[in-house]
């Protein structure tokens, strides 16, 4: 167990030769590993320093166009906020008037015609079923209406839709 934990930590090497297991450790190996880590840390520090200088340069470039030389920056930002509010109000007004859009009304009328046609088909089917029940099965009108689940006042929907 002790040897296995040392192997897992990389402090001891293991090799199976024949039927035996051989363990060894070189004192300079740990020093070399630490030296490699140190070099990697130094190189990462250097790359981070270059990234920091690049970021600072980009920040300076970005700030260059934002100097407030004549004091208008605050006024301009206020104007932008005001225009954003006006735009939002205009969009809300547009949304409120969208229901009166001629194209939307035309689309609704097309949909209404399709729905009326479908309702007329279903009404035709119900009247066909009523006719079948009364003529072929010999039922009375009231009994046929009861079976179909409609009243005697059942009629085509286009008579009730205003134009």
TrEMBL record:
Keyword Hydrolase: no
InterPro entries found in the cross-reference section: LZ3wCH, Mnd1, Mnd1_HTH
Superkingdom in the source lineage: Eukaryota
GO biological process: reciprocal meiotic recombination
Coiled coil: 38-125
Keyword flag Cytoplasm: no
The entry's keywords: Coiled coil, Nucleus
One GO cellular component, as annotated: nucleus
Intracellular or extracellular location(s): Nucleus
Gene Ontology molecular function: double-stranded DNA binding
Location of the Leucine zipper with capping helix domain: 104-156
Principal localisation: nucleus
Segments forming domain Mnd1 HTH: 1-27
Family statement drawn from the similarity comment of this UniProt entry: Belongs to the MND1 family.
Name of this chain's protein: Meiotic nuclear division protein 1
Phylogenetic placement of the source organism: Eukaryota, Sar, Stramenopiles, Ochrophyta, Bacillariophyta
């Amino acid at each position: 167990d002790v040897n296995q934990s040392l192997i897992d930590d990389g402090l001891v090497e293991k090799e199976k030769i024949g039927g035996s297991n051989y363990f060894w450790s070189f004192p300079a190996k740990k020093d070399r590993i630490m030296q490699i880590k140190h070099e990697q840390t130094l190189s990462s520090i250097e790359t981070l320093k270059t990234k920091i200088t690049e970021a600072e340069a980009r920040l300076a470039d970005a700030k260059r166009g934002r100097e407030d030389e004549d004091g208008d920056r605050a006024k301009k930002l206020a104007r932008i906020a005001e225009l954003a509010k006006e735009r939002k109000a205009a969009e809300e007004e547009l949304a409120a008037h969208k229901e009166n859009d001629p194209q939307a009304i035309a689309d609704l009328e097309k949909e209404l015609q399709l729905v009326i046609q479908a309702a007329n088909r279903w009404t035709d089917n119900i009247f066909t079923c009523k006719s079948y029940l009364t003529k072929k099965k010999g039922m009375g009108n009231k009994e046929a209406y009861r079976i179909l689940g409609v009243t005697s006042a059942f009629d085509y929907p286009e008579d009730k839709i205003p134009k």
